[in-house]
Every structure is written in C-alpha cells, then in structure tokens.
Amino acid sequence: MVMGSNSVSNAFFFPVLLLLLSFGVSSAQLSSNYYASTCPTALSVIRNVVKNAVVKEHRMGASLLRLHFHDCFVNACSLSLSLSLSLSLSQIKFACIYKANIMNTDTKLESGCDASVLLDDTSSFTGEKTAGPNKDSLRGFDVIDTIKTQLESVCPGVVSCADILAVTARDSVVLLGGPTWAVQLGRRDSTTASLSTANSDLPHPFMDLSDLISTFSNKGLTAKEMAALSGSHTIGQAGCTTFRARIYNDTSIDSLFATSLKTNCPITGGDANLSSLDITTPLLFDNAYFKNLATNKGLLHSDQQLFSGGSTDSLVTTYTTNPAAFFSDFASAIVKMGNLGALTGNSGQIRTSCRKIN
C-alpha cells in the first residue's frame, strides 16, 4: 500500500523523535547562572532599575510582567495538545526543530521569548507594538531602555533584551509581594517580529474558557498553567473597552460590582478609562484575584470564565484558600513559558538597543 506524504512524515517522525530524545537534545541550554562570569552585576543592575521604577509607579510592575508575557506568547512553536502535554521542554524544542527542518512546515524557531515585542517599526519593517492586544496598552519600554543602557556600559554586547524582560518580570512580582523563582538565562534576541501572529496568538479579554485552554495549549501550556498565569491579573489595570461588554451584558457578574464600574465606563465614551483588574488589593501580588472570581467580581469576561462552572473552577477554589499553591504554580508556569521557543547558541543576536536589530 502506498502511503501519503503526510502519513510517511508522521510514521517517520515519532520513532525518530522517541529515539533521539532518549539521548537528549544537543542544543544550548538556559541556565540561572548564565551571566555569572560574563556579567556578574547584571541581575543587580536590573533589580535596581526595576525597584526605582516600581517605587515611582506601582503599576509599572504589572506593565513589565505583561511585556514578558506578550513577548513569549508570539511565535512560540505550536504543537497538538496531546503531543505538547506529553513532552518535556527539551523534547518540545526538538519537536519544533523537527517540524521546521524535516517536515518542512512553517514553524519558526526565531520565536517565543525573544524580545520581538520591543522592536520599533521602521520604514521597511512593522513590529508587534501596534498589534491589537498591544497598541496603546503595552508600557515599560523606557524602563527596559534604561536597563539596557546601564548593562551596555558595564557589559557591552552580553546581556540580551529577552533576558532583561524575563528578569524584570520576576523582580516586579517580588517587589509587589509575590513569589520568586530562578530565572533561566541565556536567551538571545530575534531579528524579526510578527504583527500578524501577535494579533492572532495573544489571548484576548473576550475569550471563553475553551478558547483560553486551546490558546495556551497551543504554546505547550496546560489548563492549570493557564489558570495560574491568569493570576497575574491580581495586579494591573484594564481599559474600559476590554470590560464594557461584560459589565453591561454578562449575567455572571455581581450586580453591585457591575454598577460600581459603569460610572467610569459608560456605554459610550470613556474608552481609555482604567479600572483595576483586582478591586481588592490592586497593588499587591496575592490571591485576591481568585477570591474575586469566586464572588463573580472578575473584571474581564475571560477572567470570570475561570470560575463559571467549567473545568478550572476547582483550581480557582484551591488558589482562593491556598495562596502558597498559587505562588508555587505561578512560578513553575512562568518559568516554563519563559523557556518555550527561546533562542540560544548562535541563533538570533544580542541587540545593542532593544528597539532595533544590530
């Protein structure tokens, strides 16, 4: 029997995948002490700039965390849910390499947490800053510029913009009372970006639970990791356009909560008006976000979907009563997200300016 080309590819893919993975993938790996000898002051430089920025404006902590998320979620290699959930990080990376180079798909390896979100538009290039989920809402670029300038003065051409984003996210969470984690380092910066992928791959505030689960699983993240990462909405603010439909149309919302928001977010006008994602402790990274969901006080439709009679209700309940579990799961999930699709070795470059390629 003659098999189709796709069948041949799949039949060849899995045995080769399993065989080679048994010996491990020979590629550059990330490490928490990557700059120990090449730029030993890197982490302290980043920490000091972030601290000054967050003390000056507490909201900046949420903005820097969001930058890291919006960077990592664009162009990360997509695999089927069943395959992505059964593989380790190194195996996922190999699978992406296989898809791109052997199966001749359009999978991109210059992707994921690669600082593509920081690239400015030019006359011949359109970056990701003007994508729908990013336009007029991403902030903190000046903080990243300050960090990069200081690092270039002490360790020129060493610390990547992608690593700066990963560390600033961790430091911001810690400064606002959240968990800490060992940031894996050694990422390199992309030389391109994708406006279309930023528009299509980033989750949006109008998604239902099934869409959220699918969007995160496409990046190799489980529903549990999606719920934990959504807990980042315990800090930060959102514009009226992202929650107007919820407070006027949704039924799964506390009526007094909805009424309290309508003054700042009328049916027409006030599109740029902001409200806190967490009405209880908006300046603290804690588990109040999940407590809000349990009482139908999630600001965004997508937030409340985590506690709407679906498969993630039990996770919300757990995080409501066990903040340590939330902190632990969040830390593990953001490390995993930060590793997916990272450029290492000779891929990409170390940008001198985070806003443009060298």
Automatic annotation (TrEMBL):
Ca(2+) 2 binds at T234, D278, T281, D286. GO terms for molecular function: heme binding; lactoperoxidase activity; metal ion binding. GO terms for cellular component: extracellular region. Its main location: secreted. Keywords: Calcium, Disulfide bond, Heme, Hydrogen peroxide, Iron, Metal-binding, Oxidoreductase, Peroxidase, Secreted, Signal. Binds 2 calcium ions per subunit. Residues 29-358 form the Plant heme peroxidase family profile domain. CDD domains: secretory_peroxidase (cd00693). One of its GO terms (biological process) is hydrogen peroxide catabolic process. Its EC number is 1.11.1.7. InterPro entries: Haem_peroxidase, Haem_peroxidase_sf, Peroxidase_pln, Peroxidases_AS, Peroxidases_heam-ligand_BS, Secretory_peroxidase. The active site is at H70 (proton acceptor). Residues 1-28 form the signal peptide. Ca(2+) 1 binds at D71, V74, G112, D114, S116, E128. Pfam families: peroxidase (PF00141). Substrate binds at P203. It is found in: Secreted. This is Peroxidase. It comes from Rhododendron simsii.
